[in-house]
Amino acid sequence: MVSAAGHQAWAVESVRVPLDAPVIDLSHAVQHYNGQGDRIQVSTAPGPDGIVRRIEVDAKHSGTQPSWIVFALTNDTDEQLERLIVAPHFRLAGSGLIWPDLGSVRISAITASQGFQPELEDATDADVFRLTLDPGATVTYVAELRTANLPQITLWQADAYKDKITSLSLYKGIVLGIAGLLALFLSIVFVVRGAIIFPAAAALAWAVLAYVSIDFGFLNRLFTFGADAERLSRSVAEAVLAATLLVFLFAYLNLSRWHVRYSHIAAFWLVFLAALVGFALYDSAVAAGVARIMLATVAAVGFILVIYLSTHRYDRAVMLIPTWLLLLAWVTAAGFTITGTLNSDLVSPALMGGLVLIVMLIGFTIMQTAFAGAGLAHGHVSDSERKALALTGSGDIIFDWDVGADRVYVSPEVEQQLGLKRGELEGPASSWLDLLHTYDRERYRACLDTVLDQRCGRIVQDFRLRASDGHYYSFALKARPVVDAEGEVVRVVGTLADVTEAKTAEERLLHDAVHDNLTGLPNRELFFDRLDAAIAMCTSHNAPRPTIVTIDLDRFRQINDQVGPSVGDSILLTVARRLGRLLRPLDSMARIGSDQFALILLSEQRFEQTVALADSMRRTLNTPIATGDQEVALTASVGVAFHDAKLHLKSDVLIKDAEIALAQAKRGGGNRVEVFRAAMRGQPAETASLETDLRRAIERGEMRLVYQPIVRLEDRTIAGFEALLRWNHPRLGVLSPATFIPVAEQSGFIVELGLFVMDRAARELAAWQQALDVSPPIFVSVNVSSRQLLRHDLLGDVKTVLNRSGVLRGSLKLELTESLVMENPEFAAQMLSRIRDLGAGLSLDDFGTGYSSLSYLQRFPFNTIKIDQSFVRQSGKGTRPVILRSIVNLAHDLGMEVVAEGAETESDLIELSQLGCEFAQGFVFGQPISAGEARKLVGAPLDAAA
Q: Locate the PAC domain: which residues (predicted)?
C-alpha cells in the first residue's frame, strides 16, 4: 500500500512470542523507514483471520520528520503475555570507530495496531516499554525513533530483565568499587611518596573510574544528564583516558632521560589530546573517534617502546611487559567489539572489568618499582656501604692481594674478558708475571715491592695482560696498602679498570700526529725530525751521510680534477707503494705535500749509484696506473741534494736545496732528475723555494693586507678601498703579489690565500662600518682568482665570510678580470648570480684589456666596472684614448658604476669627473696604506679593528 507521504510501506512479518522465552532479539525482525515525513501508513501483519489491515501513525511533534521502525508480535498461546521492549541508549558493541554512536534516547513512542498501547517504563540507560499481548492476537507496532540509529531492540520477560539488571548491577558495583579504591589508594600513595609516577598512575586510575562510571550509567543515576551531555561525557572520558595513559607511559619509562625528542613528541601529543577534549564540545562523535584511534596508537607505540627499552636492559620496561601485553589484548578486544565482531551483551561489562584489572596491574608494577631499593634511597647508609655502592656503580674490577697468604683475588669479569678459566688469575702475586707483557713485568714487581717496603703510598700503574688468543688488554691498577696495628702491610686493595680503548686511541692519536692519514707515511714533521737525527749522527759519529730525494708528480692537479679525488687518492697510494719497494732498511720516506714525497737515503753513499736510484724511482712512476676501466699515465720530477758537512748544518737548508733541484727539474719540462748545484741558489729571489715558504706564511703571520683608497670624484671623499696582499718574507723582505701569486697559482695555494684575504678584509670592513655611520657605506674590493671561481666551494666561502663578519650587503666587492669570466661565460654567469644573491658586490676588473661579448656582458650581474689604467693615462700627445668616453657611457647604460684606475694627477681627476666616472684610484691619492692608516683616513677610531 502507499503511505500518506507517497512511499510504499509493505506489511511486516510477525514474530512468534513463546510462553517460556526470557528474551527475543528483534534487531533483525524490524523494518526501518526513513524519509516518510511526519506521518506513516503501513500494512499490518495478517491476523488469525488472514486479513491485512492498515495503520496510520502521526509523529509526536510535527515537523520533526522522524525515522520509524515497524515490527509485529504474535501470541499463539492461551494466556495473556506481558513483555518489555528494551532499546539501550548506548551499546559499545557495533558503536563504530569513525563517528561512533555515543548513545541517546532511541524510541519516542510506540503505537500498537490493536489492544493495549505500550507504556513507557522508568529507566536511565534504555528505553523500556511494557506491552500486553492477548491470547491468539497478532499485533503490529509502529515505533517513532528519536535518532536514525537503533543499535539493538529486544523483547524481555519482565522478571528475566529484572534479574539481568540486578546481576549486572552487582557486577558493576564490584568493578566500580575496585576502581574507586585503586584511584583513592594511588592518590594517597602519591601524597606520601611524591614520585612522578604516582600522580601519573593516579590520574590514569581516576580517568578509568570516570570512564567506567559513565559506561555503567552510574553518573547518570547520580546526576540527571541530557542526551547531549551524556554523549559529551563519553567523548571527553575517552579522550582523557588516552591522555592519562600517555602521561603514565612517559612518566613511568622516564622517556626524557633517553632522548629530549621523546619529550617534544609527548608534549605535542598531550596538547593534541587536550584540544580534542575542547573539540568534543563541538562534535562529540568525531572527538570520540579520534580518541579511540589515539588510545590504540598509544598502546601500540608504548608496546614498541617497552620492547625497545627492554632490549637495552631498562628494568622498568621489563616490568611493564605483562601489563602492556594485557593492554594490547584489551585494545584488540575493544576493536573487535566496536566494529561489531563481538556482539554479546556481556562484552562491554567484561571490557570495563579488564580495564580496571589493567589499572590494578599498573598499581602493583609501580609499587614494586618505587619501593624497590627504598632502603638505599632513604635509609641510613654506612661509609663502607657507600663505598661498596660507589665501586659497584663505577663498574671497576676488584683487586685484592692478601699479603700474608700471598693470594690475589680479582673479579671474574677480567677472567671472562681475557678468555681465562675462573680462578686462573687467583693465586700468588708472582703468577701474574707469565700473563704480563714483557715490558711491564719489572714495573709490576717493583711497585708491589715498594708498597711492602714503604708500608704506605698508592699504586697507580698501567699494565698489559695477555688474553688466551694472544692479544693484550691494558688495565689501570689503582690500589693502596692496608696496614695492621703493628704497621705491617696485610692487604693491598684497589681496582682494575679496562683502559684498552683509551690506550688504543692514544696510540692512534700519536701515530696520526706524525703520519699522513692517506698513505700512512711519516708526515713533514716526522721527516724533519728523522733528518735532524741523521745529520747529527753523521756529524758526530761518522755515520752515513744523508741524501735527500724530493719527488713531485707532474700535472697531478689536472689529473686529479679529471679523475676525481677518490681516484686521485688511489694514485697517491700506488705511488707510495712503488717507491716503498725501492727503499732499503736504512732509508726513510715521507709525504710532505699533496703530491710531493721526500726520501732520506742512507744506504747508498756513492754519487752515481744514488742518481741511478733516483732515476729508477722516476722510471718506476712512469708505468701507467690502472684505475677501473682506464689507465693514468704519470711522470715525476726528482730533485737530489747530497749532504755537505759545511753547508748543511740544519735540515731545512738541505731540504731547500733538494726542492731547488726539484724546481729546476720542473722548469726543464718535468720527468727528469736534477742534482742540486750551488749555482742554482743564484736564481732571483730563490723562487724555487717560495712554494715551501708560502705554505707556512699564513700560519707564521707573514701575510698582511694594505689598502689602496678609492675616492668618490663628486666630493673627493673616501668611498672605499681595494685590499692588496703583501708578503713580509723573513729572508727576502716584503714581496709584491707579482712575485708569489704565480707560485701560489701553480701550487694551488691561491685558494687558501684568497680565502685569507677575503676573511681579513671583511672583518676590517665590518669594524669600520660599526664605527662609522655614513651613507653610502664604505666598501672594500678583493680580487678573485680563476681557481677560486672554478671551485663550487667559493659560494660556501663567501657565505661563511659574510655571515661571520656581518658587513652590509654589497659592501664587500669581489673583483674578477674580464678574461677570467670569459673563460667559461655560462658557468661564470651562474656563479656570479648566486654570489650576488648571497649579498656580495661584484666588480669587473681591467675592463677593455680582454675580449668579451656584449651579449654576455649584459648577463653578468656586475655592480661596478673598473677601467684599466691603459685607457686612463694620457698618450704621448697629451690626449686620452677616445674609447674611454664610450666605455663610461656603456657602463652607465648597463646600470653600472665606473672606477678609473691609474689616476696620477689632479688634471686626471678633473677630466675623469667630467667624463662621468664616479670613482677613481691611483697614486695621486698616495701609495697603498696599512689598516691602521686606513682607519685614520676614514675617521674610524683605532680600536675599531677586527
A: 459-511
Coil/strand/helix, residue 471 = coil
Q: How far is CA 625 from the centre of its chain?
A: 41
Cell of 702: 707573514
At position 188, the amino acid (one-letter code) is I
> CA–CA separation, 888 vs 139, rounded Å?
109
**Choice between 1 and 718, residue whose per-residue pLDDT is larger:** 718
Q: How far is CA 520 from CA 53, 513, 514, 573, 597, in A?
A: 106, 11, 9, 9, 12
Whether the CB-CB separation of 357 and 179 falls below 8 Å is answered with no
Question: Please, which contacts does 758-761 make with residues 24 or more away whose CB atoms are closer than 8 Å?
Answer: 758/782, 758/797, 758/798, 758/801, 758/812, 758/814, 759/801, 759/804, 759/805, 760/705, 760/723, 761/705, 761/723, 761/812
Does residue 534 register a pLDDT over 70?
A: yes
Cell 526501518, residue located: 32
Please count the other Cβ atoms lying within 10 Å of the Cβ belonging to residue 449: 10
Task: For residue 725, give the nearest of 711, 743, 707, 742 by alpha carbon.
Answer: 707
Half-sphere exposure of 294 (CA within 13 A, CB side): 30
Give the span between the Cα atoms of 344 and 273, in whole angstroms.
Answer: 31
Q: What is the signed CA dihedral for 752, 757, 759, 764, rounded to 10 degrees?
A: 160
CB 585 within 8 A of CB 539: no
Q: How far, in Å, CA of 526 to CA of 515, rounded? A: 7
As a whole number of angstroms, the distance between CA 373 and CA 195 comes to 14
CA dihedral 804, 809, 813, 819 (to 10 degrees): 110
Helix axes 227-253, 284-311, angle to 10 degrees: 20
Q: What is the DSSP string of 193-237?
A: H--THHHHHHHHHHHHHHHHHHHTTHHHHHS---HHHHHHHHHHH
What is the average per-residue pLDDT within 383-395?
61
DSSP state letter for 390: H
Cα–Cα distance between 917 and 872 in angstroms, integer? 11
Q: At what angle do helices 347-371 and 197-215 cross, to 10 degrees?
A: 170
How many C-beta atoms surround the C-beta of residue 522 within 10 A? 21
pTM across the whole model: 0.43
Q: What percent of the chain has pLDDT over 90?
A: 5
> Is residue 600 within a helix (H) or strand (E), and if so which, with residue range?
strand 596-601
